[in-house]
Specification:
The chain is mostly helical. The chain folds into two domains: 135 residues, no CATH class; 98 residues, no CATH class. Helices cover 77% and strands 0% of the residues. The protein contains eleven helices and no strands. It is elongated, with a radius of gyration of 23 Å.
Length: 265
Amino acid sequence: MPTPSPSSSLQDRILNLVQTLQFAWFAGHVLTLVGSALHFLSVVMFRSASKPYTIAYVGALISYGVVIYKTHGTPQLNTHYAQRLVMDENVQYLLLALYWFFSKPISVTLVPFATFSTFHALGYVRSNIIPTVFPVPPSTASSSSGSGPVTWQAKTQQRIKSWTDKNYDAAMRFVAQIEVVGIMGRLLLGVFRFQIMSIFLYAQFLRFRYHLSTYNRQAFTRLRVVLDNVSRDPRVPPVVVRAYMSAKDMIIRYGQAVVQQQPRQ
């Protein structure tokens, strides 16, 4: 989006901003953040948290829908278009958000979406909201480019950029850990309630994430190291160790299936 002219009225600048797909993308992330915050607050206060949970996933569907549309264009009924969608992580998150949207609320599932939305929303505020709502006058901008004082807008934008750059990797590792351990662990508890479908569908999602995301592969590696160390403890019954080794071997083969098939696509 081009930098708005400071001579334009605030109303015109805002109208030009909100009439873009990118603003709809930003609004989706804001909904996800607001809905997630209200959901967790409701959980802490022992109140009904289903409505903010729904709001959060409506936001996720909007933001990921915009990204997919801008990336792939109008849906097409052909194999090439379908293959591009399958290997697009945004499509995977859109489908996951759609599934969580129609499912009974599981609070931990909001954590990855809220984390992503935090970084995306901050980036939009830095690059679009601040220049549009608080443009720097031409005279000030020209003086700031030299040895004059730095404007508060530039300072704020730099602080946002510094924070996001500093915390991005740690946040992505945190998200991967939540996806691999937190969400799947919570879903595995559903085995006792015969909630098998969610486990199968989420396992499919993790299989793609393992292939596409370095952070998720690292999370699986850390989990394997921890469980391997536990299995070596002499206090662990041999039958448990054998069951763990069999399960680990099955999961490894399951996860690598996508990697092995990918070159043939």
